[in-house]
Amino acid sequence: MVRHQWHYLRISINPFASQQSLHNRVFMMKIGFTSQNFKTITGHAGKTRRFLVYEVTEDGSVTELDRIDLPKEMAMHNYRGDEHPIFELDLLLTGGCGAGFINRLAQYDVRVVATGETSPTETIEKLLKGEPILAPQPHEH
Known about the structure:
Elements: E1 8-9, E2 28-34, E3 50-57, E4 62-69, E5 91-94, H1 99-106, E6 111-114, H2 120-129, E7 133-134
Parallel strand pairs: 2-5, 5-6
Antiparallel strand pairs: 1-7, 2-3, 3-4
């Protein structure tokens, strides 16, 4: 019998806390998830071609904006261009990725967080409430 010791991550996704409200300006945050099946959070972010994209507004409302289904040549592992739909995100959550992936997206101001959570909507709810999310499970090749 294998026993898993669950670890949790506490991250802040409140982009509004440090920003002063401007009259009639709406702040939002785009959150993406690697999701090869368009249902759950999946790993291998560098090779993933499918992403779920949500918008979180200042009032806490969450809307699914897009389901991105990229051609094989647009997977980040091999893509070398400067324009990519994932570069438009503020935060990307994935089941797993390497340091190179994290560093590359950081160049485009995209924060990457690996997690053991599986439900995109439940993960957003936890983050909005300031609750910790599951850390990613160890991955071996």
